[in-house]
Write a structure and sequence with these properties.
single chain; alpha/beta; Enolase-like, domain 1; TIM Barrel; 4-stranded antiparallel sheet; 13 helices; 12 strands
Amino acid sequence: MKVTDVSTIRLRYRMDTPMADAIHYMPERPLLIVQVHTDAGLTGLGEAASYGGDLESMEALVLGVLKPIVVGEDPFAVERLWQRMASRPHQRGTRGMLMMAISGVDTALWDLIGQATKTPLYRLLGGFRDTLTAYASAGFYARGKDKSVLAEEVGGYVERGFRTVKIKVGRNPDLIWNPLHQMWSSDYATVPFEDDIERVHAARDALGPHARLAIDANNAWSPAEALRFMDAIGPDRIAWLEEPVATEDRRGSAEVARALATPVSGYETETGLAGFRDLILSRAADIVQPDVIWTGGITPCRKIAALAEAFHLPVIPHVFSSAMSTIANMHFIASLPNGGLLEFDQNPNPLRSELFEEPIVVDEQGTVTMPTEPGLGVRLSQETIDRYRV
Ligand SMILES: [Mg+2]
C-alpha cells in the first residue's frame, strides 16, 4: 500500500452565543480534517488541531510541508514517516503548529493501518479496554451566565449519567498579570477572582455527594493565586486542578502540585515527547494530558503514556475540538493501562455531534463503547460537511 495523495477539509461552526475559558474567547468552532489517500482505495482520516489561528495556515503546513514527505510512502512505516515529518522541516520548530499538522497526518496513517488489517485501532495499539468512562467537559463562561445558570447546567450532566464534570475557572480581570488581558475580547464574560470561588461552590453543590468536580484554569494564574483559590475551596472537594499556571512555568506548577492534596493536571499546551518528558520529570503534573490531534499524533502520545506509566502517573488526554478529535483520542485512551477517562465536550457543536454517520454516544451510565469497525471505525457525514464547509 502506498500513499497517493493528502487532502484537507476545512469546516467551521459559528456559535449562537460565544463562549470563553480563562483566557480564550470562542465565537466559532473550526475543524481541519486531514485525509490520506492510498493506491489500495483506502482513505485514512485525522484532525490537525487549529487552535490559535486560522484554518488556512494549518492547511498550508499539511499540504505544503508534510504531503510531499508521505506521498509515495507505505503507511505501515508510520514511525519512520513521523521522524521524517518532524525532522525535515525541523527549522520550523518542534512544538506548536508543526506538531498539530503532524498530528493530523499521523492519525490518518494509523487509521489506514487499522483499515488495511481490518482491526479497530485501539486493538492494534493493545486493546486494554472496550469501554471508556466519559466526563462532561463544560461550565464555560458566556454572556449572562451567572453562577445559578452554571449550577443548573452542571446538575443536568449528573442527571444524564456523568459522574465527573469539569468547569472553567480563571477568567479574572482583577488579576493584573492574567494573560487574559492580552487576548481577544478580554472583557467578555469575566468574573472577579473572589466571585469565581463562588462559581465553584455553586457547581460543587449542584453535583450532589457522589459526582466529582474538576476545574480548569487554562494557564491563567500564578502559583500563589492557584494556591489561594484552592485554599478558599477546600482541599478534598476537587477531582483535579487543570493547567493552574503557565505551561512554561514547570517549577511553579511543581510547587502547586507539591503543596496541594488535589492532583494538578496538564498540560494540553505542551507538545511532543521531549516536552512531556520535561513536564513529567519536573513533577509539574500529577495527571498527564496529551492530545492526539495536538501533541503530534498517536505515535508520540503512546510514548508519552508509557513515560507517564513509568512514573506511575495516569493519562487523561485533552479532548475538545470535534468528533474527529474525540474518536482519535478514544482509540488512544482505550489502549492504555493508565487511562480510561474520556473528556467529552458538552457545548453545542454539530462538528462533534453530527460529523459522523453514526455519532459517538454517551449512555446513561456515562459510558462510551468503542467502535468495532476497522481503523478509527467512522464515516464522515457528507451532509454535515456540505453544511459547514468553508
Ligand atoms: Mg484544559
